[in-house]
Task: inverse folding
C-alpha cells in the first residue's frame, strides 16, 4: 500500500478543475491526494457547459453521467434590450462541428459527480478537509502541506508536487503574496434562481439567452428542475 502522506501530487480543491486533474493523473498511474474543504454536494455558480467539455468528459469516463443530470444546450442567443433584435448561434454551425451541443447542469450535482469519479479512478479524495498551510522545502525537497478535517484532526502531507485548484480561494497565490487587484475595475456580478420562467421553445429550446442591457449584460440559463 502506498503512503498517503507522501503522494506524487496533492491537489487543493475538489471543484471541476481539481477533480479533473486528480482523475487524469490517477488514470496515468500517479499517486494523487485530492482535498476539498467542503462536503459534496455543495452550492456553486457556473452551470453552463460548452461543447469542447464533452471531449474531457469522455476521457474521464463520465459523459453519460453528465448527460443524465443536464439540460440539452444546442447554442446561445444574443439579445439587444435596446433594439429588441436578437441573433442565435447554434453550435451545429460552428467551425468545429465534432461536438454540436453541450449541457446546463446544477453545479452541486456536477461537482459531486466529478469528485466521486476521481475517487473511483484511484485518487485519494477527501472531503471536509481544509488545507491550512504550506511550508516549501529546500531546493529539491518536497513541500509540507498541512490540512485539517472536520473533527479537527491535523493531517500532514509531503507531496512531490502541489497543484492549486482552489479557485477564488487562490491558496498558493495568497500564501506567496502574488495576488494583485485592478484598481480601475469596479464591476460587480449578481445571480439569482427563478422558477416559472417561460423557456425558449422550438429551435431555441435549451439555448442560453445573453441580454445586452444599458449598463452591462446578463444571461438566462435553463437549468434542471429540483
Result:
Amino acid at each position: 500500500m502506498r503512503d498517503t502522506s507522501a503522494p506524487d501530487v496533492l491537489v487543493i480543491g475538489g471543484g471541476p478543475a481539481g477533480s479533473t486533474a486528480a482523475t487524469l493523473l490517477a488514470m496515468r498511474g500517479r499517486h494523487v491526494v485530492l482535498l476539498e474543504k467542503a462536503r459534496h454536494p455543495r452550492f456553486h455558480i457556473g452551470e453552463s457547459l460548452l461543447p469542447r467539455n464533452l471531449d474531457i468528459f469522455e476521457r474521464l469516463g463520465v459523459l453519460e453521467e453528465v448527460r443524465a443530470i443536464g439540460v440539452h444546450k444546442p447554442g446561445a442567443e444574443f439579445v439587444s434590450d435596446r433594439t429588441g433584435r436578437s441573433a442565435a448561434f447554434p453550435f451545429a454551425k460552428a467551425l468545429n462541428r465534432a461536438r454540436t451541443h453541450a449541457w446546463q447542469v446544477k453545479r452541486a450535482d456536477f461537482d459531486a459527480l466529478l469528485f466521486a469519479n476521481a475517487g473511483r479512478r484511484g485518487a485519494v479524495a477527501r472531503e471536509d478537509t481544509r488545507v491550512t498551510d504550506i511550508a516549501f522545502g529546500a531546493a529539491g525537497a518536497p513541500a509540507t502541506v498541512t490540512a485539517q478535517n472536520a473533527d479537527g484532526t491535523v493531517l500532514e502531507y509531503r507531496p512531490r508536487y502541489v497543484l492549486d485548484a482552489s479557485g477564488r480561494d487562490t491558496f498558493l497565490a495568497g500564501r506567496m503574496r502574488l495576488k494583485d487587484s485592478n484598481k480601475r475595475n469596479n464591476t460587480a456580478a449578481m445571480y439569482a434562481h427563478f422558477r416559472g420562467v417561460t423557456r425558449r421553445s422550438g429551435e431555441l429550446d435549451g439555448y442560453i439567452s445573453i441580454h445586452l442591457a444599458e449598463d452591462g449584460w446578463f444571461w438566462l440559463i435553463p437549468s434542471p428542475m429540483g
